Amino acid sequence: MTNSRTGTRRRTPRRPAALLLAAALATPLVAGCGSTGAATGTELKASAPAGRPAVDPAQVAATAQGTDAFGLDLLHGLTATPDGAGRNTVVSPVGLATVLGMLLPGARGATAEELAKALHTDLGPKQYALAVGALDRPAPATDKVTLRESDEVWAKQGMAVSPDYLATLATAFDAGVHTTDFAKNPEDARKAINAAVEKTTEGRIKDLIPSNAITADTRLVLTDALYLKAKWASEFKPANTADRPFHKLDGSTPAVPSMSQHGDFKYADGSGGIVGEPWQAVELPYADGNLAMDLIVPAQGGFAAFSKGLDQPQLDRILGALAEQPVDLQLPRFHFDTSNELSSALRSLGVHAAFEKPDFGGIAQEPLGLSAVLQKATVEVDEGGTVAAAGSGAVVAGAAAPSPRQPAQLHIDRPFLFLIRDTSTGRPLFLGQVTDPQAK
Known about the structure:
The chain is α+β, with helices and mostly antiparallel strands. 25% of the residues lie in helices and 29% in strands. The strands form two sheets. Strands 3, 7, 8, 9, 10, 11, 14, 15 and 16 form a nine-stranded mixed beta sheet that branches. A seven-stranded mixed beta sheet has the order 2-5-4-6-1-13-12, sandwiched between helices. Helix 3 packs antiparallel against helix 5 and helix 5 packs parallel to helix 6. It is globular.
């Protein structure tokens, strides 16, 4: 159906073609962006400028903060039920924000307004795409850290994709549109899309798009694949790992393999002032100096209230309170996978028009409607791939030596939250909770 605002003749309404969004991510312990080229047809791509347009740093910073808030909204939505609250969960805020950032410039009216509100942005659609694209530029891989991200758009052969939309994808994301025959062979198209995601994530994310999700009605599929492999800046020595009690939400206390080390880390604790529940937090840097994992541990018995009440300004205050000091740290090893269909979560954030009364007239002049939003994730934390570090001290005679600082003690023996982020930009790569370190 053609939008009446264009002044063109209205056709008889017909069912919107399916528009399928998918975001994929993977994280083993120890880390580029571009097209994989795995397509069943040709690639449509506008010419990207020689250099991406400069983006106001304030807009990039605001987009990073908004992505934090969006990620917390998703985590709250996925853990709101009794079943979800007690389950290990990980999401990639930046992965889904990138997919929606690719979609937003093609949205119009209420569809665009609701997506922008869910993403916590006041920027125009194209400016938001540029800001997300600026955040999605990882540093070159090293032998200690690899961070790889790939954005892909797949369109039905013969669909007239707007040149302006193609130009936005090329400028903001250096992405083109692969054409594929959804109608004739949707299963081959699904396999090609999944193969591209699997390649970027080193085989960690398989079958992102499930069987029957792509049909003859599908017109467009957008994916983001994210892969991180990073070594710790300070190693957990395997000899220090031992079975230690972990206090689960159901009151049981199994013994779980927990790593241990004493060292100088950014640490903070507090009660009442930020979230209303006592908490401790520590930041574990990765070897490149720009990436880190933040662990936020509510007091025993306070996890549910703390997690539910945590919002983006409060998270900022916790991270801003971190200061280096000696820490006696224990951390359980953990490794788990999650798979989510996120349509309900997005609806709970006010995204309705994209599903019910969609207007994606900026992509193509044919009816398009959002049908599914998918995300799979895996996270693994252990001693492997980390780098050992040692600290030395000296006492100089002739003056009173300062009293040594007593180390903070953070024995993570209860449910906790974690955030993996780029500390130079604030970009949140992964956000999750661990309620049972032994659960897969």
